[in-house]
Amino acid sequence: MKPGAQSSPSIVSQRGVSPLLEFRILGPVEVLNDGEEVPLDGSKPRTVLAALLLADNGTVSDSEMSDFLWGHHPPATFNAQIYTYVSRLRKTLLHEVGITRRSRGYDIRLGNCRFDLWEFEEQARLGQNALAAGRYEESAGLLRSALSSWRGPALSGVSEHLTDAEGPRLEEARIAVLESRIEADLALGRHAQLLPELTRLVRQHPLQERFRAQLMTTFYRCNRQADALVLYEEGRRMLADELGIDPGSLLRQVHLAILTADPVLQVPHALRVGVG
């Protein structure tokens, strides 16, 4: 049976073996069956599925699910409606994926299925460990692989209530990995290649101090010390005007290093051979 043949199709392997199910929330929320999308019938079932996935093997209570679906104005029949959405998901997903009723809530068990958030987090963890150990090439590759799991803004296609509740922490995790990937690339002497990307990122995230510090370092290495100092001053004024605070220690350290031509801003000596 192919997806779309009926309103709540069951997943059926085309090869007579257990198909590979893949759950994805780092972009549009979707389920893939051997690479083919499984219909989920609208934003409400997607919201229920995403909420269960984000619970990380924990239980989502009926009240929490109601908040994710309807915010502060649930219908009188919210329990029955949640039950209906869960029932539809059970019919759509293979029996290997268990959605279980717990005390006033539900949880999901994915078994051997793939989940893009888990894969992102694992690649990110390995990449961060490699960065801390000074294995920059390995780190850059792992962190780039982690970021490739993202297909757009996380949780697309679910309710705004779930997006507002869970979206910021997912985006913060993505930004942290991106900052670390750039750190690894800077350690590898790729400052010239990073200049356009970092310029765009500072424009998009003007209060993100690590991006600004990385762009200041990139300007310095590209013999554009004046641009680096102007960038610092712009950030200092913005932080003062919008938040009433001074630059953090990272920005201050990079600023001082530029003023004193500190060798710490240069590419590590062992990596300079072949750097363009």
From TrEMBL:
The keyword Methyltransferase does not apply. CDD domains: BTAD. Residues 12-110 bind DNA. The keyword Transcription regulation applies. One of its GO terms (molecular function) is DNA binding. It holds the Pfam family BTAD. Keywords: DNA-binding, Transcription, Transcription regulation. Gene3D superfamilies: Tetratricopeptide repeat domain, Winged helix-like DNA-binding domain superfamily/Winged helix DNA-binding domain. Residues 12-110 form the OmpR/PhoB-type domain. It comes from the Bacteria. GO terms for biological process: phosphorelay signal transduction system; regulation of DNA-templated transcription. Belongs to the AfsR/DnrI/RedD regulatory family. PANTHER family: TRANSCRIPTIONAL REGULATOR REDD (PTHR35807:SF1), TRANSCRIPTIONAL REGULATOR REDD-RELATED (PTHR35807). This is DNA-binding SARP family transcriptional activator. It comes from Umezawaea tangerina.
